[in-house]
Design brief:
Shape: elongated
Helix content: 25-40%
Strand order of the largest sheet: 1-2
Distance between the termini: 23 Å
Order of helices and strands: HEHEHH
Radius of gyration: 18 Å
Low-confidence stretches: none
Number of helices: 4
Largest sheet: 2 strands, parallel
Structural class: mainly alpha
Length: 110
């Protein structure tokens, strides 16, 4: 989890054997209670290359500028409107087996 990596970053800092980091749900960066877990690795792992992902975070020039200044590296944005696994929800009063069976019948498998 992000919290485990944050602890490694705090414990080992730039000596950590971390070359690449993939952080999903990066929009939590701005969350007061959890954002630290996304911030600490960025601050303490200067050798790592980061892939920061969020399905809900749009283009953010201020964040890009801050990341570039912090890391001294270029920052790129990759966007896509394609969603291989759609965000979909429903309230059901059926068993898990019945719910999964319905999804299979409808061809809604990941």
């Amino acid at each position: 989890t992000a919290e485990v990596l944050a602890n490694v970053a705090l414990r080992d800092g730039s000596a950590a054997a971390v070359d690449f980091v993939v952080m999903d749900e990066f929009h939590y960066f701005s969350d007061k209670s959890r954002g630290f877990a996304w911030e600490a690795p960025l601050l303490r792992l200067p050798r790592a290359t980061f892939l920061l992902m969020s399905a809900t975070m749009g283009h953010n020039p201020k964040l890009h500028a801050s990341l570039k200044q912090l890391t001294g590296r270029s920052v790129s944005t990759v966007t896509s409107k394609d969603r291989p696994v759609p965000l979909d929800w429903s309230y059901r009063r059926a068993t898990l087996f019945d719910c999964v069976s319905d999804l299979v019948e409808e061809g809604r498998l990941p």
